[in-house]
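G., the chain you wanted modeled:
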Amino acid sequence: MAENSVIAEGEEMNTLLSEYLNIMTGDENGEENPDEPEVPDTTPPRISLQTSSTENTITVIVTATDESGLAESETYTYYLDNLQQGVATTENTKTYTGLQPSTEYTIKVVVKDKYGNAGTEEVKASTQGPSVPGTTEEAKPNPDQDGPEFVDTTIIKDDLDNEVVIPGGFHLDEDSGTKVEEGIVIEDANGNQFVWIPTGTYNVTTEVERITEPDIQDGKLTNELTRRQWATTANTVQPPTPISGDSVASGYYGNYYYGEGDSRSVASTQIAAFKASASPKSESNLDGNGGFYIGRYEQGTGNVCKAGVAPYTNITRDTAKSQAEAMYRGNSDVISELISSYAWDTALNFICQTNSAGYTLATTTSSSYGNIGTKNKQNTGAYSADNYSNIYDLLGNYFEWTTEYSSGSSGSCVGRGGYYSNSSGYAAERVYNGTGHFR
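Predicted structure as C-alpha cells:
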C-alpha cells in the first residue's frame, strides 16, 4: 500500500516483502509524442465524449485515438447546439459557462488527425437544477460507471457533503463508494486505483457501527493526521493513543520507533510537505487538502496498484521507496511516496472508525478478517475478507515497508501489517529489520 506514497509488506522476519502506494499533489510534468506512421492513413480519429455539469456549466472531455497521431494544432473543435461558431483548440476539454439551469444542450466535437482526417461525435448534456447556496455539485461518485477523467485537480462532494480532491489525470472508478466512509476510489488511465483517507472532521451516516470513542457527534467523526500508539499485544481491542509528533512508539520488539520528522528517517526531508498537503485547509495551511490517497491494493509487480497482480516480494525498503516515487513522476498533480507512519496510522484508524468490527481490525490475528497466518499466498485483492472501506490487503497477505525509523539493534527499517505466513502478526504492529530483504 501507500500514502500519497508507496509502502511494502512482507511475511515475518524470514519471509517475503511487498509494497503499497499512495499519492498527493505534485509539480512535475511529462508528455508523450505520437509515433510518425510509415504511410499516411485515411481513417478519421475514434472519439468518445464524457460530460459533467453544474447549474450553469457543462464540461466535455474528449478521448480520441488515431494510429497516425492527432493534429498538432486546432486538434479539437467544439460546437454548442450547432449555433455557435466552432472553437478550435489543442485542449481535449472545454467548459461552457453562463448556461441556463435544468436545460439540455447538444455538444458536437470534431477531431482531426495529422493528415486532416476529421472525426465527429455528439453528446447531449443537461445543466443541473438550481443549487442550494454554498454548495457545489460538479461531480458525484457513481457506482454504476467510471466517471470522466479530470484534466485538472478538482474538488467534488460525496453524498454527505464531504469534500474529496480528485487529482488531474484520474477519474472516479465504478467501484467507488458514494460516501467517504464507503471508500471513494479513483483510477488513472492505466487502471491503478487509490482510496481517499479523510483527515480532520468528516460527515458519516448514523448507520456507521463502531466501538471508538468519542461517540459520533452530530453525524461527524474526527480522524486526525497523526502517528498512533496501538496495543502491542495482539487481539487487544482498544482505540489507539495519538503520538506527539515524531516521539518514540512501541512495537513488538520494544520502544525503537521514531517518526519521519526524525533526521534519521529516509523521509525526513519529505514528511513536512506530505503533512501540509494531507492536513485540512486552515488559515495557516491554505494548501491543505483534508485527506490523501492510499493504494487500494498492495503494490504489484510492474509497479502497478491493481487487483489480481502478484505482489512484490523479496524487495528492499529502498527499492520500494524508489519505485513509489517514480510511479507518478511526470504528473504535475500528484506525488507518490513510500507510506509513512503518519499515513499508515491515519488510514488504519479510518478503517477502524468506519467498519462494524471497529478496533478489532487493528490487532486481530484471525484469518476471518484478512489473509493472516493462512500459509496461502494471494494476488492483490484476491482475499475478499480483507476489504475494508474499499481498501484491500492491509490486514494480511504480505508485510509492508514504511519510512518510519527504528533504532533497533538489527536494522533501521520499519515494516507494518499482518502477513500470511505468521499467525501472530497484525495490522498495527511495528517490526524492524535491516535495509536488505526480509528473507
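Confidence is low (pLDDT under 50) at residues 4-16, 26-34, 131-137.

Shout if anything looks off.
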